[in-house]
Amino acid sequence: MTTVSTPARAPEPTNGRPGSGPRRRSAGARVAAFTGHWAVRLVLVVIALFWLMPTAGLLGSSVRDRADISTSGWWQIFGFSSSFPWIVDPGRLTLDNYDALLTNSQITDSVVTTVLITVPATVLVVLVAALAGYAFAWLDFPGRDYWFLVVVGLLVVPVQVALVPVAKLFNALGIFETTPGVVLFHTAFGLPFGIFLLRSFFAEIPRELLEAARLDGAGEIRLFTRVVLPLGGPAIASLGIFQFLWVWNDMLVALIFADAADPPITVALQQQVRQFGNNIDVLAPGAFLSMLIPLAVFFAFQKQFVSGVMAGAVK
Question: How is the chain split into domains, by residue range?
Fold first, then answer.
């Protein structure tokens, strides 16, 4: 009698593929699991506190008396009593510095000048970059790809290279040391990055969506205003924030092209240091005010900014 042996059954694969063992976590998954540990989060919180310390010091100095600023550090605004340590002592704070700031016509006029420069430079860059980005993404015209390469090449051109030629051009046009001249300079150097950013974002819009709008009778202008702009809101908000922060915090272009009698806030603060040197009671609140407005703009559009930065990261 012959015995028939049954062949042994192969072990079932754990992940559906023959001959494979248990699935191992990737290096990225292990790093992500490690970074989620509470100790790493604690370290990140400590780093964030150290990063914000200069801002806290500027705010503390801006609400202290001038005599106290020159004799002790900003951390003296905290009351080191035995019952309530590290609690801000209201008796050590004063708003006289901000009162002096608001009565300083040079500082207040410089804030108005900065707004008159920053807002038009931001609006022009967003408007022109959106139109050009849509054209480079979805319109066919001769030399489109070559012109886009020129735009990409302009991204690497440093501002310092163009200072002297542009100054001569503006002087010939009669707009040197004027607010329109500063606006045009910031607009010109903000457009390459703006066009590149919005073109990359607009190119990700599904072609079927645009074709459906064209079949419904939408022209290019209506297609741009009704379809492309609403979908490109996050990228447009990101570009607006980038441009606003760059123009508001600029000092190099303002020193050269702005009117010395009516400068932006960065140049006005620099002039205060050069003229008086020790007027920290005006410099501290002025510097904090110049930093507060861009922060307010950023937090107002924070959601759109994050969406625009992360656009295209996840398919």
Answer: 29-94, 100-310
- Region for residue 132 given its phi and psi (left: phi exceeds 0; alpha: psi -120 to 50; beta: otherwise): alpha
DSSP summary character for residue 301: T
In tens, the pLDDT along 272-298 reads 775 555 667 677 788 888 888 888 877
* Closest of 36, 104, 96 to residue 65, by C-alpha: 96
243 touches 121 (CB < 8 A): yes
Q: How far apart are CA 161 and CA 177, in angstroms?
A: 19
**Where are the strands (E) in 12-81, listed by range?**
78-79
Structure tokens given for 210: 């645009």
CA distance 273 to 216: 62
**C-alpha distance from residue 79 to each of 61, 137, 174 (Å):** 15, 60, 57
Q: Quick count: other Cβ atoms within 10 Å of Cβ 216? A: 9
- The region that residue 263 occupies, defined by phi over 0 for left and psi between -120 and 50 for alpha, beta otherwise, is beta
For residue 66, how far is the Cα from the chain centroid?
Answer: 33
Q: Which of 287, 302, 180 is nearest to 240 (CA)?
A: 302
pLDDT (average), residues 233-248:
89
Q: Which fold has domain 100-310?
A: MetI-like fold (1.10.3720)
Q: Could you tell me whether strands 87-88 and 78-79 are parallel, antiparallel, or unpaired per DSSP bridges?
A: antiparallel
Q: pTM for the full model?
A: 0.74
